Each structure stands twice: as C-alpha cells, then as structure tokens.
Amino acid sequence: xxxxxxxxxxxxxxxxxxxxxxxxxxxxxxxxxxxxxxxxxxxxxxxxxxxxxxxxxxxxxxxxxxxxxxxxxxxxxxxxxxxxxxxxxxxxxxxxxxxxxxxxxxxxxxxxxxxxxxxxxxxxxxxxxxxxxxxxxxxxxxxxxxxxxxxxxx
Length: 154
Known about the structure:
The chain is an alpha+beta fold.
C-alpha cells in the first residue's frame, strides 16, 4: 500500500513538472511574438509528370528566410535563435534541401548579422540577385557540419 502512494506521488510530481514545462514553452512563444518575427517562404520546384500530364512531380524544396526582425530590447538575447531553430524545424518537417536568404543589413550591423548566422551553422555565397546570401545545406551530415563550425570559430 505504501509503495502505491509513493508511485501516485511520483506520478503527480512528474505531471506537475510536465505542466510547468508546457507553460514555460507557451510563455516563451508569447514573448517571442512580442519580441520579434520571422518571415519564411517554402519553395518547391516541380517537373513534368508524364503519368499525370501535369507539372506535379516535386524535384526540390527550399526554405527562404525573407527576414528575421527582433525588437531592439531583445537583440542579443534568445529571440533570433528561437526563430532560426523554428525555421530549421519547419524545414526538416517538410524535407527541405536547404535554408537560405539574402544577407541584407545596415552597414553598422554587418558584423553582428554575420556572426549570428555563422554561430547557427550558416555559410555565405553570392546571391542570385547580387550581394550575398546565407545558406545551410540540410542534407549534409550533421557531425561534419558541426566540425566545420568548430574549426571556423576556433
């Protein structure tokens, strides 16, 4: 009988911890809505499918980061990182090949913006419309990408 009560107490504690964890996540989401936003576009390329007679065979998937904005009071905190993590979660969910976006910034923000993306494993390349863009190849081996980041930073 005593063992049953301790099991009930332990289940109750676990449920309380899970509820507290869910509440913390919900609070972070609410704060993130006030603190910033990310504007993303899911892109697909399609090819002609001779079976259906339509362009309905998906040949490529990418996630474009149109912009990430963080309220000045939250810059340098966790907000931008949360947006990147969520974008990557969406990209993996939809089996995207890569995430990319234009590397546009105010000249005084260049160092911080580049550092932010490099910290999250993004690289730079020439943009299609000129300038530079950031990208992360999601099909690479995660361990190899991690090793490259470590070598690059230090």
